[in-house]
């Protein structure tokens, strides 16, 4: 059985490849589909098949997916372009005879009001219409979204946002990668709502304070003010608006879940807030 993983040199894709190998997949039965071959040298050194392809160049996808039995389509990172990009991969997968396709979506994509959800839902619909047996991995927020803010928070004494006291069932990329590997190896169709140990931003700030020994608070801002802060940090206006609005949606429970799908798939509790913070601080 050959398993292909798109975006295999990305933060999540590389971890999925590692999880597949740790769960018993032979490296030479894994196809790492990448845009930049140079970045995949480490994967090739492990015996993983490395093939070049680009979501924006459909003519490259057929060769990259040739002979693949199962495929993980990791969603692209270009908001606004993802539906045609993903559709190109799905069509190439069908033409190549892929027998099982998994896709990294967003939590409750079919009901979510988050601005990122429509592209994911549209992709899910294309997959459902393709005729390929499939699994949808509806990943919640990534803990690393917050870990990337630790340096600023420790320097300024605060996390900023518009999340209020909403709860965020975030999980680490490694947890989501293990779940993806488990689904790929089992080939079990379904829709999986994935999330970890829920916390508020105030609880995150308190945990960082406890472990770092530096006082950090959570500073809640109106959406417009938080958007302006993001723009001031260098984000494009449109993307800053999307992120600020998403942060506000946390107050409405959009990034929380009581589903135990993640723990069932990985066979253990999701990484705790304390452990995730400890790992991030060491990094």
TrEMBL record:
Gene3D superfamilies (UniProt xref): NAD(P)-binding Rossmann-like Domain, UDP-galactose 4-epimerase, domain 1
CDD domains noted in UniProt: TMR_SDR_a
Span of domain NmrA-like: 2-247
InterPro entries from the UniProt entry: NAD(P)-bd_dom_sf, NmrA-like, NmrA-type_oxidoreductase
Pfam families associated with the record: NmrA
Protein name as catalogued: SDR family oxidoreductase
Organism: Actinoplanes aureus
Upper taxonomic lineage: Bacteria, Bacillati, Actinomycetota, Actinomycetes, Micromonosporales
